[in-house]
Model the fold of this input.
Amino acid sequence: NKKVKTKPIAYIAVVMSEPKPPTPTPGDTYKGWLFKWTNYIKGYQRRWFVLSNGLLSYYRTQAEMGHTCRGTINLATANIAVEDSCNFVISNGGAQTYHLKASSEVERQRWITALELAKAKAVRMQAESDDSGDDCPAVPPTSGQGGGCRNLEIQSTLRTLGSKVEDLNTCNDLIVKHGSALQRSLSELEGIRVGADMGEKMRQVTERATLFRITSNAMINACRDFLSLAQNHGKRWQKALQVERDQRIRLEETLEQLAKQHNHLERAFRGATVLPSSFSNPTLGSKGGVPGKGDASDEDDDNEFFDAMEDPFDELSLASNPESPQPLELEPVRQRRTRIPDKPNYYLNLWSIMKNCIGKELSKIPMPVNFNEPLSMLQRLSEDLEYYELLDKAAKCQSSLEQMCYVAAFTISSYSTTVHRTGKPFNPLLGETFELDRLRDCGYRSLCEQVSHHPPAAAHHAVSEKGWTLRQEITLASKFRGKYLSIMPLGSIQCLFDKSNNHYSWKKVTTTVHNIIVGKLWIDQSGEIDVVNHKTGDRCHLKFAPYSYFSRDVPRKVTGVVTDKDGKAHYVLSGTWDEKMEFSRVMQSSKGENGTEGKQRTVYQTLKGAENMYFFSSLALTLNDPEEGVAPTDSRRRPDQRLMEDGRWDEANAEKQRLEEKQRTVRREREREAVKASSPEEDNYQAMWFEKLDDPVSGETLHVYKGGYWEAKDQGSWDVCPDIF
Done:
C-alpha cells in the first residue's frame, strides 16, 4: 500500500518541476557556419551566420562580427524553402535571396527550426507594429538602450507566464484524472455491503481523495502565482503603454510643426531664388534625386559573375526624342507640344491629411489634386512605351537569348522616367480609356481601359508594325506607413513576338516614396523580376537593389543573369534603372579562356524634365494634349485633370469631387441591380474593349483586348461608351 500511495504524489512533483529539453525559441540567438552560394565561379563559400531578433546576418569570419556585416535579411517577410537534404533557400521576395547549404541534414533541420520560430515571432511583432502605425524594425537590444532592456524584461515575463500556464494545464489534467478515479471509488463504495471489503474500499477512497486534494492545492497555488504575476506586470505595462501613447502624441505634434516650417521655408526659398536658364536643359545622363550612394550587394567580390570581353560593338542610344519625324517621312508628322503650363506653387499642410492615412489603402482615400500630376494612371501605364525601340530591336533578333536581353532592358526602362516623378497620377474612373496612336510616328498604337474600380485595375494592349504585341493588366496596392509610401503593382505583363512566337511574361517591382512628412520626396525601386520565355524556357532574373546610405555602389543599381532552360548562364546585365543598361555574353570556358565576342551595350538616357513641368519626359508632355476623334471616355477629356494642368487647382478639386460622387452613385445603382439579379457586382460590369481570359501559355488570367476600338474610331461611333465625365 505504501508503494501505491507514494507513486502518484511523486508523479505530480515530477510533472510540475521537470525541466524541458532545450529547443530554439523566438528570442534566442542562433549561430553557426553555413555554406552560402556566391556566384558561378566561386560557388558555395563558408560564412558565419547569426540569427537574432528576427534578423539573419552573416559574416566571412567570426572576427568580423564586431565591425563588418556582409548582409542581413528580415525574416518577417522572408520565405524559407527546403531544396534537399542539406540545402535551403531564404528569400524576402525583394532584393535578397540566400542559397544556403548545411554540413548535414541534422544541422540543416536545426537551422530550419530556429528560422521558422524566429520568423513566427518577427511576423507577430510586425503585425503589432503595423496596427500601431509604428514601422520601426526590430533591432538587437544593447546594454546602453533602455528600450532593449524593457524588451528583455517583457520577454522574460512572457516566458514566465507561459510556464505558469503550462503548469495550470498540467494541474487541470491531473484534477480530471484523479477526480474521475475518486468518483468511481465513491460509486463502488455505495454498492458494497458492510463487511470484510469495507476497510479496503475506504482506504482506496482515502488515498484517491488525498491525491485529489494535493492536485487541487497545486492548482490553487499555480492560479494564485499566475494571477499575482499578471496583476503586478499588468499595472506596469499599462503605465508604460500610456507613456508610449503620450510620446506618440508629442511626436505627431512635433512632426506637424516641422512640416509647416519646412513648407514655409521652401516657399520662401522658391520666392527668393531665380533658377539659372540652364536648369531646364541639363546634360544627358545626369542623375538627381537621392544624394549619396546606392545599395551594393552584400560582398565586394561576390558580384564578379563572369569574364566577358569589354569591347562595345553595338550601342542603341535612345536619348533622341522618339516623337521627332524621320528623315524619309513622305507625309508631315503631327507636331506635338513640348511644354505644358508651369506647376503652381500652392501651400498645403501635408501632415494634416496624411496622418489619418497611416496603414490604409490610399486608393480608397479621397485626396486633393495638390498631390497629383496632370496625368491619369492609364497615361502613366502608356509611358512604359517610352523606349519601344528596344522591342523593335528585339523583334529582329535571331537568338532567343539575345532577344531576352532586349526584353529585360525594356522591362527596366519603364522605370527610367520615374526617378523625379513624385506626383500621384489621377485614379481612372471605371470605364475610362486612353489611346496612344503613334502608328505613323513610331509604328505602334496602344489602348488602356480601367476595367475595375475596387481593386483598381487597368488593362493595356499595344501592337507594333515591327512584329510585337505588349499586353498587361496592373492592379495597384498602396500602403502609407508614416515615413514612406509603398506602391505594390500586382498583375502580369506579357510580350509576344510574331516571327518567333516567343511569349514573355514578367511582373513589376515595388515603388517606394520616401520623406512623405519632412524633407524632399524621392523615389526608389526595389525587388526582383523574373522575365520568362514560355516557349524556350529561357529566364532572366533581375535584381533592383534598394537604396542604402552606407553602400559603396552606384544608386539605383540593377543586375541580372540570362539563363537557358537548363539553368546555364549566357548573358549578364548591369546598370541603373534610371539611366542605362549593359549586357555581356558569358564567354569563360572551363579553362578560364575568354571568347571573341564583345560586350553589347543597350543605353537609354533621358533628359531631366523641368521641375516646373512635373519632371515630365518628352513623351509624357504629349500624353494629355487634346486630340480630335478620341473616345468620349478618353483621359484627355477628363475635366478635373484638364483644370489641374491649366493651373486652376481649386476648380479641379471641386470637379474631382463631383466626378467621384457621380461614380459612387453609378456604383450603388449597379450593386442594386446585381442584388436583383442575384449575381456579384463584379460580374455585373463588363469592360468595353477587353475581356477576361485564361492564357494557355503562361497559365495566367488577365483582361485581353477583344478588338473593335480602332474600327469604332474610324467610323466615329462611340455608342457603347458610358457617360463617365
